[in-house]
Amino acid sequence: MPYEFKLVRRVEFIETDMAGIVHYSNFFRYMEAAETAFIRSLGFSIWTQQAEPPVGWPRVHVECDYKSPLRFEDEVEIHLLVAEKKAKAISYAFRLRKLNAHPPVEVARGVVTAVCVTHVHGKLTATPLPKFIADQIEVAPKELLDAGKPRA
Amino acid sequence: MPYEFKLVRRVEFIETDMAGIVHYSNFFRYMEAAETAFIRSLGFSIWTQQAEPPVGWPRVHVECDYKSPLRFEDEVEIHLLVAEKKAKAISYAFRLRKLNAHPPVEVARGVVTAVCVTHVHGKLTATPLPKFIADQIEVAPKELLDAGKPRA
Amino acid sequence: MPYEFKLVRRVEFIETDMAGIVHYSNFFRYMEAAETAFIRSLGFSIWTQQAEPPVGWPRVHVECDYKSPLRFEDEVEIHLLVAEKKAKAISYAFRLRKLNAHPPVEVARGVVTAVCVTHVHGKLTATPLPKFIADQIEVAPKELLDAGKPRA
Amino acid sequence: MPYEFKLVRRVEFIETDMAGIVHYSNFFRYMEAAETAFIRSLGFSIWTQQAEPPVGWPRVHVECDYKSPLRFEDEVEIHLLVAEKKAKAISYAFRLRKLNAHPPVEVARGVVTAVCVTHVHGKLTATPLPKFIADQIEVAPKELLDAGKPRA
Q1: In angstroms, rounded to a whole number, what is the distance separating the alpha carbons of residues B68 and B24?
Q2: Residue D44 at interface with chain B, using a CB cutoff of 8 Å
């Protein structure tokens, strides 16, 4: 069962700031892109109509440690690992690497915890993960989460 | 009846890019802020539940001419003028000025045309302006729109 | 010589707004991505150190006509056409199409005019296009610009 | 000596996403706005030319816990507390409250750690806090940081 996913993207001009580097908030943009692509790779959507009622995934906790800056046109690999799977929430760990360094260098690590909710009349209520998602994913092996380094 | 509105805001760090100036897309952020504040000043909201069914204002045309860059912590005045009022659409003209120049200097002019729509089951349908908005605003005087300069 | 370029990307969650559609300002994000990828395809960078002094490309005019909304996970093709090539400026025309409609549907058309500048001590000065860029691109055929439709 | 700062702003349309709430990444936008306003209130700028060489403040760690969503036009108070002052870094704690709830409700708590760096030829090097900033701020009282609640 899948417990990881990798996405590669290139830094865009609009993502930089006057310090000449990627604005730190965009690292969450990158992590979200990897998360939605991961769910899509399972045949679903993060904003799914496949559950009844439809569910969403608001974040309850996010964090990021920045080790090295990213710059315009850098190639970034976002490596998602399923860190925790609870009844109504999923935590992902992320490792971001700059691929156009020699050798590639880890630039950041992040964590995102999303809770599964239904939206009824604008009210968010925590709800169990849809079975078709919960059944398909598993927590990544401990050594992978601890090391935080992709296996060769 | 109101035909203009002014909003002042300060350029934020996140709005800059690696060229050291405000990324051009943020000028639309500024214009949108002035537009929503204008509607709010009339006692309504751009995303109103005050109409039945609720209406929204997707853009059908926007443009901007950039004359001079904005930088971090500059003070910007966004001057909104009602340029056209149609049955189902409003056009706004915008003049943006940098107030912390001596004298203040016009940095950009923009145009935004928004159509009034209802959202029913995800489908957008053009609909007449809500009466409580249409009755309250009028088109700015021609000389103001032509000159594009705030009267002293 | 190249006069057009196509880029395909998928709408991201962060690009949507509470109306359930892509916020209109993101269409400029898409056009910028196509423009930088076009320049990159020529072997250069929009933020080039390959000229001496380095040059940048601030926008002097942008516009966009919106015909149909884009939604989360839609596939968008951004078709760039060189619309005008002046001594110190380039204009691009853009056609955006939603590829996951059957048949694909044009959702927007845009125009972006960028001026080539040097940045010296924070001052922007218009300067002729770098020869290695100017020599490589040409204006798209008139019928293509007029029709605004990709040739089959 | 100052150890806290409060900023109030209103949620903008562009900050919402298709879930109808503020996209979580914008909470960092709000915290950054409070941080730059705090530094400005001391007579300096987060992107200061007042130090020689100029210094910047890249983030090395950020986190946020989300308790309740924010929606369009909500009024948010961002309460900044100086949580730690090291030789070359500052940590801020943030409490975000929705003021237009009765009574106001805490919607999020964040932490941002920024390192003071010089930018020389594009290289970032950690450097001691400028004296004119370090001398002016102090760490907030422990009970304030622990309680995380503004004193009445």
Answers
A1: 11
A2: no
